[in-house]
Amino acid sequence: MSAGSLAASQPGFTITDPLVATLLGIVVFDEKIRLGAIELCGELVAAVLVIVGAAVLSHSPIVAPTTRSEPEPPPQ
Length: 76
Known about the structure:
The chain has 76 residues and is an all-alpha fold. The chain has helices spanning 6-27, 37-58. Helix 1 runs antiparallel to helix 2. The chain is elongated, with a radius of gyration of 20 Å.
């Protein structure tokens, strides 16, 4: 579990979560997906926004790992 940072693994979860939820809705709850042109266009736009948003957030300097240039002083 400590092989990498949480920020590195989070975009994968962000992208796969809606896909798994959709598949569970179809298989377990017998949901139907509308296949009209307007609906498919909206779904495509939403999927692109999720992927682009995850990519932008994963490259944000806020989630970048911090590096320390000098060691911490020992506790006294």
